[in-house]
């Protein structure tokens, strides 16, 4: 058992809950409340796991399988993410393609489960999720593709070990951080794309898709969402971390701290900005595409003609 | 070679027997028997080619104008033959079940089975000949057979129109192809592909024009944007197995032609690679955007063909560029990815069309807005459709993912000699990612609306699951989809054979190393999915059941479920420019409408719409122009002809 393995597994077990807890705490502090305990999301998941599920008579077995497909794909995507700012548990050429498509599979499963209930509200949520994710996907590929070209590497973690040494690399770096943040907000249903705490089904995206899930199934969905948050936050943290790639304990600790900082930023944005109107969300996601394109341009500019 | 040649008379005899026999069952038996025998013969004949045997050549003297019928069988021919014939056979088996209700009403099916056999025959000709005239002959047989197959239900005017539209479009393509062959003939004085090859391997402006002409002709055959307008109509009109064969198998001939001439041409120029890549990307984008708004399930699948051939062409574009830059690793990734995707598309597209056919068999409609909740009444069809749908979105662990991954690993390899070129390739990868995500939207929509939820039209009678002859081809295709997903090596055996005639074939094994690691991930994912699937399915069976939580607004009728149109509405509004919505009637302006209003929305094909507009205007202009020539119309006609001839001469002279 290498320390890196233990560290990665520990982070994977603890951080999803902690990140969600930190976001909730930050939101509470901004609104002048004390807020729930930091590990409340973990207790919520445990509580749900002890309950039993109720299924709609309209649904097919697909509805019962979907949450677990989502969980499996999210956990799988965490394996190729540099959770500690160094080599992840699993790494191979073009692993981010697998990550993006594994997320796609989880998303498709959840959207199908939403349509399976026959509820118009859930159909609405699924349609919105499908529309927004279609716009997110190219942004993700632009950013990671640009960073891969910049660092001349083919794996996600190596692409994220970007060192800033001139204007072009700084521009690419800033754009990558912005784009990844928007991707993170869209994928994990945070403000200003989606409001996870709203009480009006008509305005929800992600939450409305899981209205009918209960008990362990709901726990799986919440856990999967937290894991996706961890994946996104770790990716941004690795990019922010100047020591990334060193593989030292210091660099690992810094990555974890920076992931928590990302959670603080997400919570702060969520407290200060209202959710966008649904028609404006595509424009916001377009920001990520634009940032990705600029990162690609900066890469071209920096690398010039040399191969 | 003898084995391969023997398939020709076998198929011919089978076709004649099918057409001549009076009993439908006997006709079907003759078709299936001859196609099975031919499949075995062809597979036995071409198997050595896939394993690396040298190409087979044969030439007969023949009276003019053909002079020689020469056969040239290489790995590429073997690849296409190896799956085209078996899949046509499966389509014929499907037809025996699908057409049964027609037969019971006394309809004769002999010609239909004969035509299916003739289609196989056309493959044997097109994929093996080395002479342009014979190639055109096979090409034409396939086109006319497909047309006659499409208009099976010829009493319906709409279907006759779709067939007419197809036959005209495919002949427009034929004219372009003939033009290219005539140019080649004028340059070489021969109709042999080998002579064409000698001319095409030298760079000239004539070669560029021929490349464009051939590209257009083959693109029309494979229904690339903007030459796709005939395709959604034809696919919606044809019986399910004909749509499946056209989309999955017959139209792959266009891509074969493209590769055949690529091989004849040898090392391409850089602009050709970029053109193919951009053209493919555009097709993929347009095709997938159009799938998002379709109401007719088979039309939707038709547009998805335009998308998938686009993805294949993106792979070929990468192959071209790699060839130009003399990077065998990149070239081989592009061609292998394209060929693998082409094969995968045949697997899942036939599966999806067959499943759509099963829906039609049970309900007599493929209109998404009338369906719903079919998964409970047709669980097998639903499962098979789902497998195909997930595969076509390129989701792991199914086969579409394997082939798109190979194309991605070419696009994102960073191997291009210049950073600008690498940036463009990355941009193409982002486009492909967008195509994948939109395809997920369309397929979730199609499956979700048709198979999940409650029936939208309670009066719609849902019949039985498809009978065995329909089920068997579907199951076989689904097995192929899963198998190639978790073990792409199976399909790569074929692809490897197809790449043998290419000079960079040796670079295949090292280039596919990334795929090797991904396969293990796919297998692990497949295992995990099966595990969670079984566990959650078993554990949930005893769970408490209740009604769907309606948020306090329980729908008054099942028609108030989210429809296919509403699912695509927000997306279609973002991409309005590509997805123009036609409205009839006006929505009510009041928040609380007092009068009843009528509103119908419909998404038309923008290219077709524009084409008809232009044609309409053109007619007007011609009308106005001819009015100005009051008399002596014959003189005007002759003058026009002479002018055209002179312009043609000048053009040809300039090209020389």
Helix-strand blueprint:
The complex is a heterodimer of chains A (307) and B (656).
Chain A lengths: L2 H28 L9 H11 L3 E3 L4 H19 L15 H22 L3 H32 L4 H5 L6 H21 L18 H4 L5 H26 L8 H24 L8 H23 L4
Helix pairs in contact in A: 1-9, 1-10, 2-9, 3-4, 3-9, 4-5, 5-7, 5-11, 7-9, 7-11, 9-10
Chain B lengths: L1 H19 L3 H28 L4 E6 L6 E6 L1 H24 L1 H5 L5 H17 L5 H19 L6 H32 L4 H8 L4 H17 L8 H8 L2 H11 L1 H14 L4 H22 L5 H28 L3 H36 L10 H4 L1 H14 L6 H13 L7 H33 L16 H19 L2 H11 L8 H4 L1 H28 L3 E3 L17 H11 L6 E4 L15 E4 L2 H22 L5 H23 L1
Antiparallel strand pairs in B: 1-2, 4-5
Helix pairs in contact in B: 1-2, 1-5, 2-3, 2-5, 3-5, 3-11, 3-15, 3-20, 3-21, 5-6, 6-7, 6-11, 7-9, 7-10, 8-12, 9-12, 10-11, 10-14, 11-15, 13-14, 13-19, 14-15, 14-18, 14-19, 15-17, 15-18, 15-20, 15-21, 17-19, 17-20, 18-20, 18-23
Brief overview:
With 307 residues, chain A is mostly helical. Chain A is 70% helix and 1% strand. The relative contact order of chain A is 0.18.
- In total, the number of domains of chain B comes to 3
Can you count the helices of chain A? Answer: 11
Read across the widest sheet of chain B, the strand sequence of neighbours is: 1-2
Q: Could you spell the SSE succession of chain A in H and E letters? A: HHEHHHHHHHHH
Query: Could you report the average pLDDT of chain A, rounded to the nearest whole number?
Result: 89
- Measured by DSSP, the beta-strand proportion of chain A falls in under 5%
Kindly describe this structure:
The complex is a heterodimer of chains A (307) and B (656). Chain A has 307 residues and is mostly helical. Chain A has one domain. Helices cover 70% and strands 1% of the residues of chain A. Chain A has helices spanning 3-30, 40-50, 61-79, 95-116, 120-151, 156-160, 167-187, 206-209, 215-240, 249-272, 281-303; one strand spanning 54-56. Chain A is globular. Chain B folds into three domains: 1-185 and 193-200 and 226-246, no CATH class; 267-534 and 561-582, no CATH class; 606-655. Chain B is built from 26 helices and five strands. A two-stranded antiparallel ribbon of chain B has the order 1-2. In chain B, α3 (75-98) packs antiparallel against α11 and α15 (328-363) packs antiparallel against α20 (468-486). The longest helix of chain B is centred in the middle third of the chain and has 36 residues, at 328-363. Chain B starts with a helix and ends with a helix.
